[in-house]
Amino acid sequence: MFGYYIKLALKSVKRNPILSMLMITAIALGIGASMTTITVNYLMSADPIPHKSAQLFHIQVDSWDPNNAFDDDDDALPNQLTWTDATNFTLAKKALRQSAMGMSGGIIEPPGDDAKPFEASIRLAYTDFFGMFDVPFIFGNPWDSSSDTNRQQVVVLSKRTNESVFGGENSVGKTIVIDGRNFQVVGVIDDWQPMPKFYDVNNGAFNETEEIFMPFTLKEELELPNWGNNSCWKSPDGEGYKAFLQSECINTQMWVELPNDLAKAEYMDFLNNYVLEQKALGRFPRPLNNRLSNVMEWMERQEVVEEDAKMMMWLSFMFLLVCLLNTIGLLLAKFTGKSAEIGLRLAVGASKTDLFKQHLVETALIGLMGGIAGLGLAVLGLQGIKSLYGDFVDDLATLDVSMILVALSIALLSSIAAGLYPTWRACNIAPASQLKSQ
Fold it and tell me: What's the rounded Cα separation, in Å, for the pair 218 and 209?
């Protein structure tokens, strides 16, 4: 019977092509607009490491100005740590894995007379960074912990950097020149772009991953520049790079891996005891206030999904509602035009239930066509976003299978909902009056 209803629906669409196209277009516009914003919001708020996001925690401690909170919220904590605290937390080794980290950069000097130097971003971290965030390797491995301790000049390259400098070959054991210094390559990672880039949302949640990874301890050893956000509530005590590192300026992130609630509670006790010890030394003038935020909590606190993006999504839903209201009007017009046919079928014994099902199938077919057309408009909308904002939104402007299914589901359900009243109205006409008029 369902196949028969589909056949009747296709004939009805062909019989009234202009009216049907208007309804399909209205639904397509609503689906296209809503799916463009839904897709962006969905990808911005997606769990970037779902299998262990509840075990990875970002550390916050309140080392800020005693007279002013970090921002307008009195309970607000600094979003980064000082060099001193992040280093101490890492060296304490109180978690399964831990790593202080920060951003820097330098000039890579490729081998060959014709090769041009280029600037590259650097992620300074401890070796636990790679295991903690499941970074995939195509050649070699992370450096070992002794390289962190001994401040050895070793690096891990991104796949694109390895292709630029070494032509994509296995470069493990080779030397790369960065800012005039020789570094030994110990590994090359595969394509790795967590979206959002949760481990450092302070410096761009949707930026590309860094091009080079090197031991965090080399920042002090080589006096590497600070490329990330840096905030200070008082000036360093002294001059020079070392005084800057030992100041109360915050420019370092810190993540730990804690496999269960017990490990989390024990680590919080460690943080509280550490801050109390620092208070005795004259630091941490604000009340005791430490926090461990897992991946999703951290992204929510940092408002990775901007309010503007959420507002645009709700506005697109309102636009979809307007399109559906127009569709209701068009369906009323279409089904009213079929009153004589419906009256005749009722007169010869067709039940209202059968007619109701038939016309709901027709509205569902129109909705499906509108949904497919809406997907095309959504693709165009996402391409427009790419052209406006550049390559860094490529991973945010892509329709995946789940979003395609969502679009088609919304189109079907919304069109069926829009067709309920027109269908009910059409099925409740008086057949006698229609037969008399004929």
Answer: 19
Segment 403-426 shows an average pLDDT of: 77
Asked whether the predicted pLDDT for residue 52 surpasses 70, the reply is yes
Cβ atoms within 10 Å of 291's Cβ, excluding its own: 17
Distances from the Cα of 84 to the Cαs of 366, 382, 409, in angstroms? 64, 44, 53
Please tell me whether the overall predicted TM-score, pTM, comes out greater than 0.85 for this model: no
Instruction: Using CA atoms of 203, 206, 209, 211 in order, give the dihedral in degrees to the nearest 10.
Output: -80
CA–CA–CA angle 244, 58, 51 (5° rounding): 145
| Per-residue pLDDT tens over the stretch 200-253 | 988 877 788 999 999 999 999 999 999 988 999 988 888 899 999 999 999 999
Kindly tell me the sign of the dihedral angle through the C-alpha atoms of 415, 418, 422, 424: positive
Phi, psi of 305 (to 5 degrees): -90, 110
Q: Which of 213, 185, 207 is nearest to 120 (CA)?
A: 213
**Helices and strands, counts by H and E, the chain:** 15, 11
Helix 401-427 vs helix 352-389: crossing angle, to nearest 10: 140
- Joined tokens for residue 296: 């999703």
State the pairing for strand pair 118-125/212-215. Answer: parallel
Model pLDDT, residue 187: 97
Q: What span, in angstroms and rounded, lies between the C-alpha atoms of 21 and 24?
A: 5
Q: How far is CA 249 from CA 81, 89, 111, 233, 276, in A?
A: 8, 16, 38, 7, 20
